[in-house]
Amino acid sequence: MSDREARQRALRAKREQLKNKKAKLNEVRERRRNALDKKKGARQRAENRTKTAHIDVDKFIKGVIDARPEAAASLATEEEAPVFQAPSGSNFSLVPGNSISIDPKAAREMYEKSIQVTTRDVAEFMGLVDFEATPEVQDRMNLTSLGAGELAPWGSDQKVTIEPEVKMVESEAAANDEDPEAEDGVASPKKSNLPVTKLIEHVEIIDSRSRREIYQKDDFSNFFDRSSLLIERCLALNQDYNIFVDFSKEDQHNREAEQNIDIKHKRTFALEKTKDRPVTCLSWSKLNPQLFLTTYASQNDAFGDSADGLLVVWNVILDNRPEYVFQCQSMITVADFHPSNPKLVLGCTLSGQILLWDMRENKRTPVFRSQFISGHTQAIFAMSFIPSAAMGTEQILTVSHDAKICVWRDDMLSEPHEMEFKVEGDTRGASDELTTSCFSIPVRDTNVIILGSDTGRLFSGLVYSDQNPQPCNEVKAHAGPITNLEFHPPNTGKLRLNPDTLQLFLTSSFDWTVKLWDNKNQLELHCFDTLQDYVHDVRWSPVHPAVFACADGLGRVSIFNMVNKDYGQPVVDKIITEGCGICRLSWSYDGKQLLFGDADGNMHLFEVAEELYNCTEEDLQEFQAQMLKLGKATRLHKEEEEAKQAVQQNVRNSRRG
Length: 657
Prior knowledge:
Elements: H1 3-67, H2 69-76, H3 119-125, H4 135-139, H5 172-176, H6 180-183, H7 208-215, H8 218-236, H9 252-259, E1 263-269, E2 279-284, E3 291-296, E4 309-315, E5 324-328, E6 332-337, E7 344-349, E8 354-358, E9 368-369, E10 380-388, E11 393-400, E12 404-409, E13 412-423, E14 436-440, E15 448-453, E16 457-462, E17 470-476, E18 482-487, E19 504-509, E20 514-518, E21 523-528, E22 535-540, E23 547-552, E24 556-561, E25 572-575, E26 582-587, E27 593-598, E28 603-608, H10 617-656
Parallel strand pairs: 13-17
Antiparallel strand pairs: 1-28, 2-3, 3-4, 4-5, 6-7, 7-8, 8-9, 10-11, 11-12, 12-13, 14-15, 15-16, 16-17, 18-19, 19-20, 20-21, 22-23, 23-24, 24-25, 26-27, 27-28
């Protein structure tokens, strides 16, 4: 038997079943109609018998009267009216009058009124509907018995049943079956594209013990966490808009605020587990601009139950609910999103390991850890990605505290390229050990690297060199440890920067200063000395080439604009936190938001004024002209100083001679 004949036979069987069901339904209806007709006929016969009995009584009374007319006549004679006499000894006299007849009390008229109601109305009137139940439960009540022909008082043995909830379940077999008659050339009605459904007749209500077991399952907890996160995202969107604002009225306060260049607080991100844990790194996601990550230092409490390494991924619209929480055994010093794979996060630890987390995995611990056999053996404080279009992979550059450089490939993290530096001509007289805490590479030449040391010196060298360890150039830059170093970023907009601008870099230090350097000419262009405490971080704006921001230990942020005539003074000088310093800051990739991480473990998000991220072509030309003028003045001053030193040296030599 072929499949076609089997389908035809199954279709005929279904049609026969439908015909049988229809016949049975008609038979039930006919029996019900006959039963109703019988009850109606019995009721009419009872009424006829009552009428016949009344007629027989009337005939009997009439026959009696006809048989004894004298008795009927005596009954019909009127009774004599009684005669009343006045009491003896009274002054009353009897006054004749007419007789008064009192009509009997009339019966009250009764009216019948019929009202058409539903079975739901009857159930509500009888108190059978639980109004505290959900509408779905109320609609599933079986009230068909209330619509029967004859109603009886509600008995104690009767119960209200609730029909099981109907769920729509798609039938795979129905979706794949085709009409067999269509193959025979017989026209068939057009099928609907809606899925075929079937009823779930029995719904099991679980007990409390089973419910607790379900709550403890990972699948349910993941589903609940994801669903609640989506709901909180929707609710958080309303926080960015003021529904009470009146656009028809003029707000003088807002007008004055818009005229001043400032940053506006948007929200603060905080968790109980991050309290009193200083922020060690901030980074935005390039592929998902609404996400940023934060790493935290270890807890001060040595007996705490939290892991030393903590990395939290936040969404800018949720200030108390992170997207992901990752952890490890060692403190995470620096981390960043993968530039081409948004699901991966890389981090470096105090123990010298490089770690990899995957957001797609349902685990907080890393999916990869580097081995100590190859790589770093001391703390890693800086990490950066080097794009490599020719290889089709991303290169990760890390520098440890002992100035050891490792270049990792994201597809082969187990075998890094290693390079070490050595200091030549060290005038300190103590040792030749080089310690570093930050580094940066220029955009145009990724083989050049400059390291910032905790001794206040800058060391420059090459990432790839034939000599290992390689000698490096040393420059005395600051009087205290250098906290950060950053080359000028490439502009991602329509503006095109000249190569000399991309050779500029900034340094921040504990000596309360920020300095601007020209790497091409090895010159210090300017020193910003208006700050009042340790400067913990400095960052260029990613969209405005003349703007950069720095933060200090007093919780103050200073934003400078090199286009201004008095570029040595900040255009924004504002206290962000009271009582604690700012550890790290980071610009969003569009330059419209600034994020600050403080020593208490809180992140503060600020909106930036338009003047600080909107750069025109005139501003760019003025900035580049300003840097060219500043470079010439610095070189001229350096030549004059060298000439003076040469003259003084000649005078000393002549005196000795």
